[in-house]
Design brief:
It contains 5 helices and 5 strands. The protein has 146 residues and is of the alpha+beta class. It is globular.
């Protein structure tokens, strides 16, 4: 029985390709926790997308900045926070509308946020002075959490 979350942290450079380190680490933790292979694959894709967003949009490919990925697991879920050091999002964060994208009224770019939302159980985007973070949560038994 886990009394408090077990945590691990990765510090990644702002360089495309390093999202794979976060993706593989999250997959390993999820496998240890007993997630099904399909849920592990969903998590890998969501973490990779969130890391790419942090690298490209948050840190704007500035290699002097870093990305911190924190994984916290308990008996029921795995939380992954992807934190960039960029200027943060100013104003309201626009979450893409898949229907508008499908009919061509929104740019096809920006599907990552929609994809992340579809693949995990909880998503939160937070902008701070020190950067932004995406908080992704995937539950071992999503039906029990509803």
């Amino acid at each position: 029985m886990i009394d408090s979350p077990i945590m691990t942290e990765l510090r990644l450079p702002t360089r495309l390709g390093f999202e794979k380190v976060a993706m593989d680490t999250a997959a390993s933790v999820a496998q240890i926790m007993g997630f099904s292979p399909d849920r592990v694959d969903d998590l890998k894709t969501a973490v990779a997308e969130a890391c790419i967003n942090a690298i490209e949009h948050g840190n704007q490919l500035n290699e002097r900045l870093g990305v911190v990925v924190t994984l916290a697991m308990d008996e029921k879920s795995l939380e992954v926070k992807i934190h960039d050091q960029g200027g943060g999002v100013h104003g309201d964060l626009h979450v893409p509308d898949i229907d508008l994208k499908m009919i061509g009224e929104e740019t096809p770019r920006g599907m990552g946020m929609f994809l992340i939302q579809a693949l995990v159980d909880e998503v939160e985007y937070v902008s701070e002075k020190s950067g932004s973070y995406a908080r992704l949560v995937i539950h071992l038994n999503p039906k029990e959490m509803a």
